[in-house]
Amino acid sequence: MIDGPDPIDIHVGQRVRARRKMLGLSQTQLGQELGVTFQQVQKYERGTNRIGSSRLFRMSSTLDVPVAYFFEGAETKLPGYDSIEDIVGDGVFDREETQELVDAYYRIADPRIRKKVLGLARLLSSGVDEYGM
Fold first, then answer.
1. 83 Cα distance to chain centroid
2. What are the Cα distances from residue 55, in Å, to 43, 95, 116, 123?
3. Measured CA angle at 48 (ends 52, 34), to 5 deg
4. Contact 78, 6 (CB under 8 A)
5. How would you label 81-93 residue by residue, b for 16+ Cβ within 10 Å and e otherwise?
6. CA-based Rg of the chain, rounded to a whole angstrom?
7. pLDDT tens digit at each of 133 positions of the chain
8. CB of 48 closer than 8 Å to CB of 14
9. What pTM was estimated for this model as a whole?
10. What contacts 56, CB < 8 A, 6 or more positions away?
């Protein structure tokens, strides 16, 4: 039995917060769009309150991301996975450069192109210098 919020609820809440901040929305503004109070948005973002499926669907539309966005990387919250901070270092997700990169990535409307951009990033990060860079 898990004591406290479920790690997946916390992860989803963190993704909500990151996207909200990327768009420059306050908790109050997001709450108004969803028909809830800013306190409720705070609870969602901390993972203390679970987000129901219909509200998560509405939230994805409001934040202009697919529903799957909220679960990307959630498998790392399961037992047996190392924390991404252990791998890439603390604070990497708080950097402005990271937020700009993620924001630009999700502005690519075509999911096929997004997949190719992700593939290119993986290729370049693995040390392969196929493009002569």
1. 15
2. 14, 29, 30, 36
3. 45
4. no
5. eeeeeeeeeeeee
6. 16
7. 557 888 889 989 999 999 999 899 999 999 999 999 999 999 999 999 999 999 999 999 999 999 999 988 877 666 665 555 555 555 677 778 888 888 888 889 888 898 888 888 888 877 755 555 4
8. no
9. 0.60
10. 12, 67, 70
Q: Supply 19's token pair.
A: 């996207």
Q: Which residues of 1-36 are buried (b: 16+ CB within 10 A; e: fewer)?
A: eeeebeebbbbbbbbbbbbbebeebebeebbeebeb
Residue 41, CB-side half-sphere exposure with 13 Å CA sphere: 22
Q: What amino acid occupies position 50?
A: R
Give the residue carrying structure tokens 């919250």: 77
Q: Which two tokens stand for residue 118?
A: 């992700």
